[in-house]
Each structure stands twice: as structure tokens, then as C-alpha cells.
From TrEMBL:
This is dipeptidase E. Its EC number is 3.4.13.21. Belongs to the peptidase S51 family. It comes from Pontibacter chinhatensis. It is found in: Cytoplasm.
Length: 239
């Protein structure tokens, strides 16, 4: 599989503009490309497809990359099949996945990504790159027929991963607790991506990028911390 993926936890970090914290990695991924297809289906805050696309277009045009929205095409499947690269932005993962299935884009995205088309995801766009969306933080505000996602990688991802606050008196469950509950019913590993972090996948190799470690959860094992210099390739060859 000739995967060429950049899976980003979030589109904006504290003190930076839209995608600015990942701009060098995005430029490297898109080297030699002049255009990218944006899929705005996740609609953060209910923003329109048009307004969301305009926001993404402004960022990519600064880097010399023209951007079009998939909703601007009469045939979205054809648009994906002919795209130089694809970017799926954040928002609500359930809304996003439902629209991907409704517009029959799941198979097309899987086929293109398997052949090396550059794929960028942020937040919900990173969630749907995993095996399922079962570890999203989003509320299920719409019904989806399946949790099965694009399966560009064989594990799940939890973007916006938060560590427990040791000074908090809140007694509710932590993110670790929720992922442990997930593993009572599901085998696949889960990668907790902290803000500012991203996964770069090239074929059968994967690297953690950004300033933070990632928290990796395996079924029936204690969570593990992996630094950007550590080997994460085993996660691409599981189950």
C-alpha cells in the first residue's frame, strides 16, 4: 500500500492561525502538487460548505496550492478520482462520515489513498482515516449506518487527546477511562494525539511529528507513551 497521509490532531493551536502549526509538514506532503480537493462535510459549528471551503482556500493559496470544494462538483466521486490531493477538515465526525457514505466517497477515497494520493486530515478528518470512528470525542448528532471509517490505517485515533488535570476536583471519567471502555468491546489500538501533534504515514512507515508524545492504548495493556523519535511502525501491522 502506497499510503501518503498526514493525520493532524487539530487545525489550530493556541497562538497560531488555521493550519499554521502544520504548514511545513503540509508543504512537504504536497511538494510537486498544485491543487487540492477539500471535503467540508464535517461543518464545524454548522458553517456552510461554501464558507468552510473559503477558510481552507485562504490558507492553501498562501502556499501556492489552489483549493476547490468537493461540493462544487456535479460528480463528487469523479472529483475525488481526479484530485491531486485531498484534505478533509474537522468538525463533527458523525456528520462527516454520514455525508461520505451518502455521496459514495468512501470507496473512492480508499482507492486513491491506497495508491499514494496525498491525504490530509484534521480532527474529524483524522478520525475518519482510522478503522472506525468509535473513539471520536464528538456527540452523535446525526445517525450513521456504520462506524466503519476509511480504514487508511488499521487503528483508531483520538484527536484532541487530553491528559487528566491533577488539580481538578472533577470526578467524571477521563479520556483514558473512555478508551479503556472502548477496548472492552474492540480490539484495535487507539492513538491519542495531543494538540499540535500529527502522524505522517508513508507506505508501511509511520512517524509522530510535533512537540508532544502520543499516548497509545492496546487492548488489555497499560497505556504507553511514544516520543516523536520512537518507532510506531508496529501500529501499521496490527489485526
Amino acid at each position: 500500500m502506497s499510503r501518503n497521509l498526514l493525520l493532524i490532531s487539530t487545525s489550530t493551536t493556541y497562538g497560531t492561525g488555521y493550519l499554521e502549526h502544520a504548514q511545513e509538514e503540509i508543504k512537504a506532503l504536497l511538494q510537486g502538487k498544485s491543487s487540492i480537493l477539500f471535503i467540508p462535510y464535517a461543518r464545524p459549528g454548522g458553517i456552510s460548505h461554501q464558507d468552510y471551503t473559503a477558510k481552507a482556500r485562504e490558507a492553501f493559496e498562501k502556499w501556492g496550492i489552489s483549493l476547490s470544494g468537493v461540493h462544487e462538483y456535479d460528480d463528487p466521486v469523479k472529483a475525488v478520482k481526479e484530485a491531486e490531493a485531498v484534505f478533509i477538515g474537522g468538525g463533527n465526525t458523525f456528520v462527516l462520515l454520514r455525508q461520505l457514505y451518502q455521496n459514495k466517497l468512501v470507496d473512492a477515497l480508499q482507492e486513491r489513498a491506497a495508491k499514494g494520493m496525498p491525504y490530509i486530515g484534521t480532527s474529524a478528518g483524522t478520525n475518519v482515516a482510522g478503522r472506525t470512528i468509535g473513539t471520536t470525542n464528538d456527540m452523535p448528532i446525526v445517525h450513521v449506518k456504520t462506524f466503519d471509517a476509511l480504514q487508511l490505517v488499521p487503528f483508531n485515533i483520538n484527536p484532541h487527546f487530553l491528559d487528566p488535570d491533577p488539580n481538578s476536583t472533577h470526578m467524571g471519567e477521563t479520556r483514558d477511562t473512555r478508551i479503556a471502555e472502548f477496548h472492552h468491546h474492540n480490539r484495535q489500538p487507539v492513538v491519542g494525539l495531543r494538540e499540535g501533534s500529527m502522524l505522517r504515514v508513508q507506505g508501511d512507515k509511520m512517524q509522530l511529528l510535533g512537540p508532544h508524545s502520543a499516548r497509545v492504548f492496546l487492548q488489555s495493556e497499560k497505556p504507553m507513551e511514544f516520543k516523536p523519535t520512537d518507532d510506531l511502525n508496529f501500529l501499521l501491522d496490527v489485526y
